[in-house]
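WP5 quarterly update. Target: Flavin prenyltransferase UbiX. Source organism: Polycladospora coralii. Length: 199 aa.
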Amino acid sequence: MNKKRVVIGMSGASGAPYALQVVQTLLGRGDTVHIILTEAAWRVLKEEHGWVLSNREAFLQSQFKGLPGELIYHPLKDIGASIASGSFQCDAMVVIPCSMGTLAKLAHGLSTNLLERTVDVMLKEKRKLVIVPREMPLSAIHLENMLKLAQNGAHILPAMPAFYHEPRSVEDMVRFVAGKVLDSIEVEHQLYKRWEGGK
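Structure tokens (predicted):
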């Protein structure tokens, strides 16, 4: 199996389960995951998962304990982290979920924190970048920002579960979106049943 090095950025939109499934799958394969979370992302994890956040890095590591891959946590304010440089080599970056506030900053090239700076690096180096927006309905401003990022090489993959694989649970729907994200960065997985043609 070809090992990957992937950067995961989590911002403050609802949809943390999508990110956690992607991280779990990557680490389960033995890949290396560099992860950045915004302050709003930590709040979402508290609200959606009940996470206790007194020691963020240790708690995050404990959630994926026992998996063969390596999880490297980067504080949001560490603008000098390895992943902030164009010389850092990685296979892809995924921003999942991506809030509309973060989307706007990314579309306009702002680099006020490590997540934004790392996306800026991915764009300027023309590396694989996947943005997973999670909002509805979408305003014209949101759509314009997505278009701007797409025109600059980002892959826009909205968190839109499908039903052709006959999901039986919320987890099945989460796994579908996570699987589509992994497809887009060329990672093998078995998260959902693929379409094999009509009956």
